Amino acid sequence: MNKQALAFLTMFSFVLMLSVYYVTLPDDQVTASIQNTSEKEVAKTKDTSENQKQEDPVGKLQETINQKLEVEYNKQSESVADENASEEVKKQAIVAMDDVEKRKQMQEEIVKKLEESGYKCAVEIKDTTCIVNVFEPKESKEVAKDILIKTSSITNNAYFVEVTFKK
Description:
By secondary structure, the protein is mainly alpha-helical. The protein has helices at 3-24, 27-54, 57-81, 87-116, 141-155; strands spanning 121-126, 129-135, 160-166.
């Protein structure tokens, strides 16, 4: 008997043994196991929702922006994986995926630079516009000017920079 057949028989007998064990378990243990699992899931959900409430609005907004980019990336990825799509459509999807990656990297770079300067902000790049959402208690022209200069230097003036103040 070759190794492949032996491995198959071993795995098959193992699965058969586990299924017999599961079937012969009393209902009390199965129900208790299911209840413990569901209680743990409920506790995890509560912890997650409490952590999200405690998060700052900057992180929530940036997460929403990143999710939009991921949806766009996944959509293009599906186009590339589609067997019925033409080569031209696949090439366009690959270019779009590269664009999404570049925008995401640039957004992260801008956020990092502005956080180093002491600003709490979320950045979104759409088409030809770079939107910088600044979470500052006071709106000031000096802050907006500083953010414009720093953002423009990172983007090499490739985008129209829009600064919005949020509270």
